[in-house]
Amino acid sequence: MGSGAGIVIENPQGDKFEYAIKLEYPSSNNEAEYEAFLAGGELALAAGAKKVIIYSDSQLVVNQVQGSYEARDEKIAMYFAKVKNLLEKFEEAFVVKISRVNNSAADQLARLASSMAAIRTRRITFISSDMAAIEEQEEIMCTGPTPFS
Question: Where does the record place the RNase H type-1 domain (predicted)?
Fold first, then answer.
């Protein structure tokens, strides 16, 4: 089935950007946590962030980054080295451990991503509706291609 990684980035203005990443290869939960950390950091860099506070509910990742734990596993040590390299690209970077309860948005995104089997081969449109189909709705004119054209 594969794992998923969830990322929530909040800018200084309070705008939130959420990402669900499907990991289409075998990975442990700790590897998925590192993948989320790295992807979130790279997204923050791409957005021009110079200072970041990275919150994670992974005790292993946070303690390794803060120097309390060693990265003994070869694969985890490779992730840890990439994280150290990434953090050096910021003027300031803080890594903070938070509870799973306080990280529920990212966990929901990770679960969403991991539940999507073979997502690469599918074309999915996500639609959010704030009104029941039986309620009166405003008519909208479509000018581009639709699934029915």
Answer: 1-115
